[in-house]
Amino acid sequence: MLAAITAVSCIGHFSPDAFWSLFREAEPTPEVVTESDFESRPNVESFQFSSHGILVAQSEDFFTSEGVAAMRAVVKALEDEPFIDGVTWMEDIPGLNLFGLPEPVFPKRTASEELYRKAKRKALENPFVRGQLLSEDANTMVLLFNYDFFMLEDDQQCIAGVREIAQTASEQFDVEIEFGVTGPFPIYLSMMEQHEANNFFYQMVGYSVIFVMSLILFRGLVAVLVLGAAPALGVFWTLGFVSFLGYDNNPFIDVVLPILVSLVGLTDGVHLLVQIRKLRASGLKPLAAAREGLSQVGLACGLTSLTTAIGFGSLALARHEFVQQFGYSCVIGVICCFVAVITVIPLACSTWIGNFIQSAEKTSLIDRNLDRISGVIDFVLPRKLLFSLIAIAATILLILVSTTLRPDERLSSAMPASSEPAIALAKLDDAMQGLEQGYVRILWDREIEADAPEVMQVVKQVDTLLAKEPLLGNVVSIRHLIDALPGEGPPETRMSMLELLLPPFKRVYYEPESRYTAVNFRVRDLGISQYNPVFTRMIAGMAEIENQHPHFTLYAGGKAFNRWENLYKIVVDLALSLGTASLIIFAILAIVYRSLRIGLISFVPNLFPLAFAGAFLVVTSQSLEVVAVCAFTVCLGIAVDDTIHFLTRFEEERKICDADDEAIRKAFTGVGTALIMTTVVLVSGFATVLMSDSRDHFIFASMGAITIAAALFADLVFLPALLSQFARKKPE
Questions:
Q1: Residue 606 and residue 722 in contact, taking contact as beta carbons nearer than 8 Å
Q2: Percent of the chain at pLDDT above 90?
Q3: Long-range CB pairs of 110-115, under 8 A, 24+ apart, other chains included
Q4: Is the Cβ–Cβ distance between 103 and 92 less than 8 Å?
Q5: What is the pLDDT of residues 296-353, one digit of tens each?
Q6: What is the spatial distance between Cα 219 and Cα 273, in angstroms, rounded to a whole number?
Q7: Which three-class secondary structure state does DSSP give residue 468?
Q8: Separation CA 147–CA 188 (nearest Å)
């Protein structure tokens, strides 16, 4: 069976596409689309302020002879590079005049200082330049460029290569200009580079730390090798099977999943191996010890795997694609690790290897100090009512504190803070009021003419609405275009002047044949939670404008706005999935232990660590990001494992003990070693990811370490007190 599963997994590792090609049908012939399928519209493409990359230049001397010459040399050097497919900058923007004549933004190099001052003033009066390609203080200039991906030699050309070309070209002139590269593709590339670097490094570091910690705790190389073989094989199976699903470039799957799955496998493996070691030390033969150990711990391992799979599987209910994929992959990983643990460890222990499995059993760090740790039980049980009330009150209080968390997400969260795109993005936030653009689109019915005064009235109302929000920068609409044109009078009476603009530039904000105009604005990367009240007020104001103008329809959009809308849905989905998983898990516990009382008792030690981690986020002034909610769900599945092992041992000891307190003490002695070992190994594994400079990885790892540590405290302190106080008493 092991060989068959491994063979199928190998196909996933090396050739998943070849496997799926056996089941694919021939692709159908695409339908021919004719021009009649589209509405007639002018054959003019609107000017695009979007691009693959952005070169951010900063200097106080742009409007000088040397500064202009340097920037023209930079543009020429970039356009001469075969991997750069066009550059857009200030000199590509026409002047706003009554005749649509092209006017250079910069004067000749020999022009006087007065002409340069006039050029600067004129550039800042142009809505297509100010806030789009030049900051309001004229010290930051933006050059938009696209890549010719067929001509790129390596990834370094996309960021460092562009910056070095610009720097080299500008050094020929007596002017200081600082360059940085950002934009959609450099940001994506930075994320992927970090993702690939972390993929191997943190897996190796994580596995090494787990191996060292296991060796220290078990004090036996044979035991550590047997223990590590099961989750290692489970991880290999998991990655092979996940590759069949085609989940590429998911940072959680490549970096977090292997460590997470190995840690989940280790928790069950430690419990099973500790039990087999104890049975071997008591004198049983290897085969008998393996069989008896599996009989005693196998049910608990199966139950923990089921509850963990339910916790992880709830992530599949989310709307975020990466989170869904991570949820499915975690379920596959839990199943693979469970099968590996209950086959590999007993198989190895039943052979000659079992003769050495119990070596150093009495000298392991935990076993030698277990009697000292058992003093916790002796301190808690006589004060069971006090500790029970503390457990319930603390859990409720921490839950109330956790409810103050607010959803948040940042574009830079998945990038290294020290990367060039992240630094350049921060500069754009300060100088240009953000990289990302949002918009409010205004559409009107056929009863309204495209140049009707009411169109401009609605535009002015939207302008005023957005201008009230200080976090929304660089509001631009057709109103600003008309105001920039020569002439006087209110904009409502000058709508016809828009025809004087060059069509590609006019159509950025206005398409009369489509009965559509737009008001654009910029958004900084401050976090979506900062924009929650802003966007909420904006939506309310838009609804009020629609009520005043029934022939008009308004709707908002843009990447930042869409993230705001989706983020709250995602977090609500994840919170509901977390609640649903909790109820299902506790219902399963009540059914398995045939006691609703036991199911209710298990609520506190399993919710306490999650509430503790949530309160930690509040105290440290952090927000509820998607990765944090994923960590909550993952940690619920892991934290409940220790509770199940403790409850299972308690139920077994209860059958042969005269009193519940005695059963609790024996349950602690029986599983205490494994509980502490798994917690130390889990926290050590999560701690390795804390070295990552990715904010998402850091949040996930810190949440995992804090939750698992709090879960151990709850299981060793609160759970014994609750069982002693509220469990149904054993009949005399």
A1: no
A2: 13
A3: 110/65, 111/65, 113/64
A4: no
A5: 888 888 888 887 787 777 777 766 677 788 888 888 988 999 999 999 999 988 888 7
A6: 13
A7: coil
A8: 14
